[in-house]
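To fix ideas, we quote verbatim one protein's residues and fold tokens.
>
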Amino acid sequence: MSAAGSLLAVLPAASVLLLTVATTPRGVDPVAPTRLAAVRAALVAGAYAVLVVEVLGALHALTRPAFVVAWLLFLLATATAVGLRWRRDTPPAEAPAATPLRVPVGAAVAAGAGPETSVPLSDRGPADGHDAAPIQTGGVRARAADTWRTASRGERLLAGVIGGLVLLELLVALLAEPNNFDSQTYHLPKVEHWVAQGDLDFWPTAIHRQVTIPPGAEYLLLHLRLLTGGDALHNLVQWAAGVLCLLVAARITAQLGGGRRAQLITAFVLASTPMVVLQATSTQTDLVCAAWVACAATLVLDGLRRRTGWGTLLALGAATGLTAVTKTSGLIAVGPLLVLWGLAQLRLALAARAPAAGRVRPVGGVVRVVGGSALILVVAALVVGPFLARVTAEFGHPLGPPRLRESIPMERHDPASVLVNALRIGHTAFDTPLAPLRSASADAIIDGADAIGVDPQDRAITFGREVFPVPAWYPDEDRVAFPIAGAVALLGALVALVRPRRIDTGQVGPLRAYAVVVLTTVLLHTAMLKWQPWGNRLLLYALVLAVPLAGLWLDALMRRQASRSTSAAPTTDRARRSVAALAVVAMLATSALAGVLALSYGFPRRLVGSGSVFTTSDWDTRFLRRPEWADEFRWAAAAVRDSGARRIGLVEQNDDWEYPWWLLLRQPDGSSPELVSLQSVLPERPPADPASVDAIVCTGSQPACAKLVPAGWRLEFRGYVGYALPPGR
């Protein structure tokens, strides 16, 4: 990445920061206003990034100058918005130095703001620090130091671990080259095809996922690719999504009545979950999807007690559209969330029966809810619609070809099959290093499935040719289980549903409603998606949605123990509560250990040991999944480059690596190579004629490659990789 590329990459980051400032609510009503502003900024920037790609793609202008201009215009717009906001909020008679800034006490969670924080009574929110408090500009540092000083030791520890994990993940994300398996096959080749073409048109390919899987996360990568000229910053997209997940999960906790400690516990459990730790340094797409789902959730919770404004309706539409264009499975959660929002808004509309008091009439309120719902869908369609239109035009169905619609979704929905699928998904999600426990529970599921007449390996409920069970406890970004976070999230959801008063007596309705949404999401997921060995990462959006209930429940356990430890309760009762508190502390410590180990020794990016980001070369880092392929790709690419070939044919199978060719065969001036596929699974996109290329590169099957090599060409193969050249080259 060049120095100019580094500077250009600042444009999106600066725009988001300015947008956060511009959209921060100034009143004391919103919960955690700075985090709400971060949600708004992320949604606006995300929707803008997607629409820029769609518009410039339609104009065949996916070029670096076009993207630089787009971000300069956006930066200018956000800076203007900040300036106008500052002028509006600054009284003419006041000097700028005395301008009060609204700094949310809840946003100081990481610093552990204490109850002694000075806040004028008129602006003070609930004791948990949900609302904004004005402070003078000159006292920011002193007050930040004071909030840290007054924080409890436990809160400091929680905040320190969260911050440490996030910073170390940032380090790994910056040092490690993209090496996710799926990224080598279709995530990153997709980006390179767009750059080479200059548009979003589909292309002949043997890997259907390059064109059929929603491309929202790759749209964000495309911005970085064109701004920087390479992939050095690609991991930052998922890292930023992970940070957004932490902020939004903590805000959801606050919206459901959680104080500072509950918010910290929520962020702690999520930040130390191995799947989150490992995905935050990758070019996968699951954290991006989870972030958009979480944004939708926090906006919906804002609508439980007050009417939703037009700005929030637009944001909900953007969250829905961004979820759909990133990973359609996220809509499994967004759907129930929008139903909850609609019911809450209808209740508020029907409750407005006093026109004289400035309220709308019930009929008008219902019409407004219906209109708001339509607006959400329209905005979502603007974001995801162009991609769906291309897929429909190509395959005759918005969900793509039959092979895609039948490979991942469940093909049987009878109760017995859904039950078996749910049990298998749960077994993989809650896997632990205890092999006897894994074997015993898997055997019980298989025997139970046989007893109710369901084949546990039935292809209609099982992805591809995979066989249940598989070990998923080890820290691999594609498989790692989350038994701790998953268990406490599930227990928290059940407590919130059945006994919400044990969490917060003032939040019974919202807690139950949110728990219903979480449990409904999990049930729908298990009823709609087949079991697969990599299914844990597909559940990440549901985990992020559920963890706030875990934080609330764990905080309630500790709060009850603290309030009753000095009471006149029997000794056995006090001892029982002490054991519960110790169990919570032990669970948090174990979760922290799991997160640290995943960051230190996780695969395929780690801090220490074999394959460390500090000791492994850039090229070898890319091939940690398949180290034996590193030299093979170089060997074949060197032969093709030495031949002087310009137009190069690709021969590959559905799960083969294509991305290394885009790196190794790049032109001397840095421009994209001319790579064309000699196979195609797209009926309307015929493959290139082998006789029209100057060389052929192959991955995977040598017999499949040999069938496409013209007569008289020289074919060389070494393990996984091969190449073919015409006579005389």
